Amino acid sequence: MLGARIKQGRVAAGLSLRELAQGVGVSAMAISKYERDQIKPSSEALLRLGSALGVRTEYFFRQPVIELTGVNFRKHAKLSPQDEAQALDDVREQLERWLELEAVIPSSWPKAFLLPKGLPAHVHAYEEIEAIADRMRAAWHLGTGPIANLIDRLEEGGIKVILTPHDGGKKFDGMVAIANGNTVIVVGESWPGDRQRFTLAHELGHLVLRGRLAEGLDEERACHRFASALLVPRQEAVRLLGASRSWVEPRELYMLKHEWGLSMNGWLYRALHLGILTKAAAKRHWEFFAQQGEGGTTWREQEPGKPYAKEYPLRFTQLVYRALAEEMIGESKAAELLGLTLVDLRLRRRMEAFDAPGCH
Ligand SMILES: [Zn+2]
Q: Where are the domains of the chain?
């Protein structure tokens, strides 16, 4: 039990037996024996293990209860087995903290994800996905405008959103998983905001479209279509671009990107799918994009101008502070759940420490 947790922590930190041994000041053999529960680390060794692995010692005693099912790494994700193990371990660790919190808060606080009502049982053409995305928007009362904060929306809809830094250097976009009855979407942390939003919407597409696609429809393509339709409803795209165009100014695309949180390239695809641009016209834009750029990086690889701001999950942290305020947990539990020292938690409670958005 303890050994399995030490191993899990070591894998999550990406350390070899030898590297961890050096950090702790024991032999690699000792670490190996800890992991197989052949010897028990002293409390001092446990403290050093915790600091070498960047976890609090409570981590080693938490019950590993997470069973991840339905995990689908995106097809083009080329994570090495080690990166994949680290990403999954990180997700498990974050989920464990969620479940620990949920065990002490009223069940009315967290919500469960529900599919919108009245979805068609079968989808026969990519076109039909437009109406499904509209239903999703309606079920979540999103109206037809830009979605200001998609992570917040997903969390409000009962989906746990987890950002992981273990994305193998942008080799991994996202995945959706079911864990102990929780619906979870995981996204790599290093992507710019527009890419992150597209991935989130794409993964939501998997949840909504799974089992409905007729034979011959590609699920990845269908989820891309769902993502862009969710981010920009058809009638809005037509209103903003017009029903038919032969050229769209890059500056228009740039402004639309920042208004709607969909990349310039995503807008070109949207225009193509909706028949606003013909295939030939879309191709002219992509050829133009491939010729622009600086320092050998074209606009196809990196879009010009400011990147779209990233989003961060906030719900977990909010609920921890709420549980603290309502005396369902004490300070040391709150600190543990947030991965903070007690001193840092108290600074935050007194509003004397502020971090970048997304931290506590
Ligand atoms: Zn996918």
A: 1-64
Exposed, middle or buried: residue 118 (CB in 10 Å: 0-12, 13-18, 19+)? exposed
How far, in Å, is the centroid of ligand 1 from the Cα of 31?
38
For residues 270 and 197, give the distance between their C-alpha atoms in angstroms, rounded to a whole number.
Answer: 15
Residue 63 CA: distances (Å) to CA of 70, 95, 100, 225, 230: 22, 12, 10, 40, 38
Ranking 85-99, 251-265, 280-294, 297-311 by mean pLDDT, the lowest is: 85-99
pTM, two decimal places: 0.82
Burial class (CB in 10 A: 0-12, 13-18, 19+), 68: middle
pLDDT by residue (tens digit) across 56-86?
Answer: 777 787 665 566 666 665 544 567 777 777 8
Give the residue among 269, 246, 265, 238 at the shortest CA–CA distance from 254: 265
Tokens representing 322 are: 């709420």
Residues with CB under 5 A from ligand 1 (ion): 74, 220, 223
Q: What is the DSSP letter of 180?
A: T
Give, in words, the CATH class of 1-64.
Answer: mainly alpha
**For residue 284, how far is its CA from the centre of ligand 1 (angstroms)?**
28
For residue 29, report the distance from its CA to the centre of ligand 1, in Å.
Answer: 42
Which of 25-29, 76-80, 104-108, 190-194 is least confident? 76-80
DSSP state of 139: H
Centre of ligand 1 to C-alpha 211, Å, is: 14
DSSP 25: T
Polymer length in residues for the chain: 360
Q: Is the separation of the CB atoms in 201 and 231 below 8 Å?
A: yes
238 C-alpha to center of ligand 1: Å?
26
Mean pLDDT across the chain: 90
